Amino acid sequence: MPTTSIEKAVTRDIQPGSVILQHDGGGERSQTVRAVTEYLPRLLDEGYTFVRPRR
Question: Model pTM?
């Protein structure tokens, strides 16, 4: 999936309380990594915070 498609899918309907699930499905992931490096800083600048699940 192209980087822009991934970024749009993640951020299209995001709102406070939204959950973004990131997982490693194996295979070629360079587009996913690129998308995260694009949308993560932008969301942080917009005031979103990120947490990891407790184990």
Answer: 0.77
